[in-house]
Records
---
Amino acid sequence: MHMADALLSPAVGATMWAVSAGGVALTSARLCRERDDRLAPLMGVLGGFLFAAQMINFSIPGTGSSGHLTGGLLLAILLGPSAAFLTVASVLVVQAFFFADGGLLALGCNIFNLGVIPALLVYPLCYLRLIGPAPGPRREAAVTMSCALVAMQLGALCVVLETAASGISVLPLDKFLFLMQPIHLAIGLVEGAVTLAVVSFLRKARPELLGRGERARAASGRLALAGVLICALLVAGGLSRFASEKPDGLEWSVAKASGAPSLAERRFGLPAWLGALQKRTAWFPEYQAPAPAAVTQTGTASGKGSGVPGVVGTVVTVVLVVGAAALLRRGNRESATPEA
Amino acid sequence: MASVQGALLDLKRLDRLAGGDTPLHRLDPRAKVLATLVFIVCVVSFGRYEISALIPFFIFPVCLVSSGRLPARYLAAKVALVAPFAIAVGICNPLFDRTVLLHLGPLDVTGGWVSFASIVVRTALTVAAALVLTALTGFASICRALVSLGMPRTFAMQLLFLYRYLFVLAEEGGRAARARELRSFGRTGRGLASYASLLGHLLLRTWQRAERMHMAMLARGYAGTFPAAQHGSFGAREFLFVLFWSALCIILRLYNGAEILGTLVTGYLP
């Protein structure tokens, strides 16, 4: 569930960057204070482990599909929230740079959805509260499964909200939610099962490894509270303001749900030449507003709404870009041969 | 990511590109990071129905690829492989948005298709920019640039550690995965039970490796931080590079280059 740059508006991307950068700064400072120098190599190789584990699939019985680990909750159980968050964030950074999973602007969103939510919100607020001091196997199973589910659902919800607030995709909020949440219910179940299986394997094989996360328990309450506060403020302030500034995604789907598009505005904002063509669009008042101004102008000028200059211009630009590339390449080759 | 080995080979190839020696490779990494950020912000700040104004932006990745002597076909294939999520969400646009925006002769183009095409173009631009940045700069240099731009040192160290051991662990994981595949028939043996114990063993070995590494680092005098690598200088060339590309991106953001060219060309036609 990596977000992609193409679906983000700069406002949403920047807000989420700010939130995630805040998380990175906070947890880095905390780890610096702890001064556990064993932690640095451990986090590094566990990041590599997470990377490898995400590439290995297992088949889910009965469905024919396959799943893999996402790992935020597992790392939080092993390392404690701060170290786990930094590890997941670093894996996402590498994926953004090398596989372009998501993208650079979407990195903030991805770090929030896959790192902040499981490690800094769900782990301290749900897992630690529910698991208790000496959990039995049933309690551990129930808590791990439910926490993985909650983390995955929250992550999917954030993807939907970020996409809707950006307003690049016109998929209605409710439909997108219905699409995303059930899929991530299944993914969350898989995640919970894998996390539980690996943790119980470790409990049998080397139980002393599981102590680290428990030691971090004492200090994590304050961190979680601060994290929640900052996230809530930033997300609420940032996202809702942008959503209301650009009345497309969220507001539009609200208007659709309430069934009351404002008729006066719609008449007012429309160019006359589109009037005959918009029988179907009575429900979609916003769509005309961001239509490219140039197209509208040339349309009214030539009287028939033609997009010819835009298309011709595009073709000419492509030709120019390709020509520039060829020239640069040839220049390079000529300069390269004398050296070689 | 079809297989672990394939992904790893891919990673290594992209990593090796950063070892090139062109003026662009020698540029201070900060300049490249800043220019790429300006470019991405300009690209994504367009409205959802914009296509023609986005096309001129291809000049940035194309110029860098050609003058950085990067393999264009390989990068294009990576860009094409990468965007399933954006396209999966974008493909719904034509279904929900049926306003006719454009007339190309007898063809009516709906807003949904326009915005879908816009999403595809954006994906290509942003992904290409990110990959070109990595291929021209190398991950370690990008980390260095980010630290001097304000990233916490702890996180930079984590990134460098991860980057160093990524290859080792991915190879180990790949070997384990291949061994499991060779021992499993059809779908038996590929279920959750064997997956969990495979991951568990991988985790144990990882942990032991971390302990060995820590001891080796202590033996070499590790005291909590790495010595800083040598810093490049942010000179006139870097300044000009950033200035030129930022100015170009902002101008292309403000004026639709393709549209202006198009009216110029069609203006001379009868």
---
Amino acid sequence: MRKPRISLLRASWLVLRKDWMIEWRTRARLTALIFFSLSTLLLFSFAMGPDIEALRRHAPGYLWLALLFASVLSLGESFRVESENQALTGLVVTPVEPRAIFLGKVFGNASLLFGLSLVLLPVAVALYDIDLSRAPLTLLLVLFLGSVGISAPGIVYSAISANARARDVMLPLLLFPVLVPLLLAAVSATRFTLVPDAQDQLPGWLKLLTAFDLIYLSVGFLLFPKVAEED
Amino acid sequence: MASWIPLAGLIVLVALVIAQLAVPSSRAWVWKVAAGLGTLELAALLYFGLVWAPPEAFMSDVGRILYVHVPHVWACLVAFTINVACAIAYLMKKSWRTDALAEASAEIGVYFGAIGVLMGSIWARPTWGVWWDWDPRLISTTVMLLAYVGYLAFRSFTEDPERRAAWSAAAAILGYVSLPIVWFSVRWWNSLHQVQSTGSTVDKPMRAVLYWGNVTFLTFLLAFIIKRYELARARQSSALELPPVQAPKTEVAV
């Protein structure tokens, strides 16, 4: 095992900064994601009809489904930018731990999804008439934990499906079953930041979200080097 | 049926597994014995389950489907556990054998799981009045099944055998880890809506038949996995020993 020249956290930060820089210079991914999820939100309201009560009640579900669909695009793109000029091979042969690539990529994706959710919130207010003023900070926490939870298993699946045939089908096929508990927890937690939480259920769902994040961050952290060395 | 009979069947099954693993010369016949034994056990199960066992107190004859439904789901879970054990073993030490066993157990597990969920749905219709319910066991088995269908699709869509082995091992572990989380989250989510149904205590003769069903389908599981493993090994050896792909001929022979 070669000895890393720089610390894991520093290397992760460099990978994260590199991803942010690519994103900032092109702004292609975020723009595409915003318009994609905006139209998803709009389509949900068309599909449900103009019943504002039903829309308001189901708004957390629509919000998270829009984020989930957008995450497939964002995760797929996250390794596609590395396939040009064999950039991923370059990253893997640099004297840093492959785990730094994992951490950097997870938080790069999570920040992108989190930013996207911030853009979607005012749109959800306009379309579904939800009230954000009840627990805004908790809502931000839920959005952040959910974004990390989608990205942690998503990055491992994205790394392995980037080279498979039919990769656009492969990623959701592998990712969505694993994300079922995350979706349940995130939607329920979001709901209880928007409507009165009579039975005090929010802390439980927040714990489940945190546990999901920690479990998949650690499993991905352990698995990613095995996956990356085959690239 | 006395309660020791399923235990005897289980001991025979374990002996077969040990023979398959430890005695190379027995590998030619173990799967045949398992398949034959499974067929006999299945015939006995038909008698015990349909005729000998008393009808269920609340569900009457509908309850008899449990003697095949529960064993299918158990066999599915055993297969997926073998699969994830192989995945971990492969990532620790590369071996084509563990990769082949992982492929075999995943495919057979999906078969048993699909049949099990289907039968559960058939059972739920007259019992619960619906084909589908948000029961944690049902949801986690189905999610597991979906994850493994994705796993198998992924395997068939990746050509390079070494990459396929390592990547699908990672996918298997990620999928398997989700099982307890799915179960827990669905139970929690569902318990907010309705009262959880609890498993009623099972009467002794019925429990014996249920265990007999488990032994029967685990015996079939052994036979199926051995055959599927041999198939995977044969495919591997043909894929690994194949000469590099030759450039297609541009001339057409007339």
